[in-house]
Automatic annotation (TrEMBL):
Residues 124-147 are annotated as: Disordered. Its EC number is 1.97.-.-. GO terms for molecular function: electron transfer activity; heme binding; metal ion binding; oxidoreductase activity. It is an enzyme of class 1 (oxidoreductase). Residues 1-25 form the signal peptide. Pfam families: Cytochrom_C. The chain crosses the membrane at residues 157-174, 213-234. Residues 137-147 have a biased composition (Low complexity). This is Menaquinone reductase, multiheme cytochrome c subunit. The lineage of its organism: Bacteria, Pseudomonadati, Bacteroidota, Flavobacteriia, Flavobacteriales. Residues 30-128 form the Cytochrome c domain. Keywords: Heme, Iron, Membrane, Metal-binding, Oxidoreductase, Signal, Transmembrane, Transmembrane helix.
Amino acid sequence: MISWRKHYKQTLIAIGLLLSTSASIYGQDGDPKNGEKLFKANCTACHALDKQVIGPPLKGVVDRVKTEGGVGKDWLHKWIKDNKALRASGDKYANEIFEKYNKTEMLVFPNLSEKDIDDILAYTTNPPAPEEKKTPEATAGTEATAASPADKTTTNIVIISLLAIAGLLVWILIKLRQLVKLGQSEDLAGLNETRVKSFSEIYQKYHLIGKGLIAILALLATYGIWNWIMWIGVYKGYKPEQPIYFSHKIHAGENKIDCQLCHSSAKYGKVSEIPSMNVCMNCHRTISEYNGKYMEPGKDKAFYDGEIQKIYAATGWDPQKAQYTGKTQPVEWTRIHNMPDFVYFNHSQHVVAGEQAIINSFNKKNPNNKIDVVCKACHGKIDTMNVVQMANDFTMGWCIECHRTTEVDMNNGYNKEYFKNLHDKLKKQYPKDGGKITVDAIGGLECGKCHY
């Protein structure tokens, strides 16, 4: 009895030690799932798991620092929290890494707790397997396979029905021909021989009607030619393919990137120029593959990754060495919006001075299709376009109509001061709608404003 109790106590002690050891191991190793969230939030700007970005790949970093520098997790905790202080302390391995990666200083993360860092390191040691996602194409293919027998049956029924209708029509035509032959008497045959058979005879008989028809046709032809000429250069709906696929829906729509981050000249200059490839590389230097949730129908991750590689080829960026090679390839973009040489249009005037006035006017005229950015008034809802297209006519009449209906914002600092002495005069001159002043009242219809 005493022996049994002794072994029982030993067993309990052993189980307790095992549980405590397991708990301590788990606490030390961390939670990979939480580590994945922390990694994506704090590390992906400079690091990836399996390839070099700005910094080295971090998969297996715990084993790597142990092998290379003979250091462990405690060292990694110090490095992540404040690598600058660690280097200043004279740590040999820390300074070696700093020199190895071109003296690129890593950010400090004093906000991360010890557990947070353990979770991140657990993720780099044993990243969770990615969940399989069913693509729309696969789902559609399954549905198509399931529905294929029913589709074949329906197709056969339609073909048989059409053949039956065609046979019935042929039979009706034959019967009608027989009835016509039976009903044609000798008197009717003689009358057919006396009918007018030449065009000249018909014209002589009905020349007044003929001249009237010719006049109408001439007017219609003239109108058609005039209408065709008037629409030369109007390319609403034009959306050419570009040498590098760029989806505004992904960038401006899904990722909420401000238009002026790329098209900065629209706010400060006449032309909203095409951004240089260096602007693309501000982000894509660290984004070498597409991991977004949205995908355009017919496109997959491999397609988007391939387009990013085209950016690297154009700029001469080597993602493996994280440096430029100096070998660039100019990108021949196809221009979509292009004003004629005889038209002056200043983007900054509309984007800065007219921003709120244009937005208010557009939303008033389109209550069910409101906009939040001034660019959309002319270029359409660009944040929903995978391929950019010309959303409006961009004719002179279209511009004039906008100037006639857009109310000037007299409360902004510029207009309030500049038109200080003109307010009363303009209100008397334009008393409609309680003295509201539209762009045409301040020179918006003057020829010299746009044609110089």
